[in-house]
Amino acid sequence: MTTVPSATSPATTTGASSAQQQLAGNFDTFLTLLTTQLQNQDPLSPMDSNQFTQQLVQFSQVEQQINTNDNLKTLINQGTSANSAYAVSYLGKAVTVSNGNAPLANGQAVWAYNLNTDASQTQLTVTDAKGNVVYTGAGETGSGAHVFDWDGKDNGGNQLSDGTYKLTVTAKAADGSAVTNSVTSTGAVSEVDMTGSTPLLMVGPMSVSLTDVVGVQSL
Question: Among 186, 57, 27, 40, which residue's Cα sits nearest to residue 113?
Answer without folding.
Answer: 186
